[in-house]
Amino acid sequence: MANLGVGFDVLGLAFAEPGDIVRAEWSQRPGVTISAIIGDDGKLPLDLERNTAGVAARSVLRRLGIENTFGVS
Question: Domain locations in the chain?
Answer without folding.
Answer: 19-72
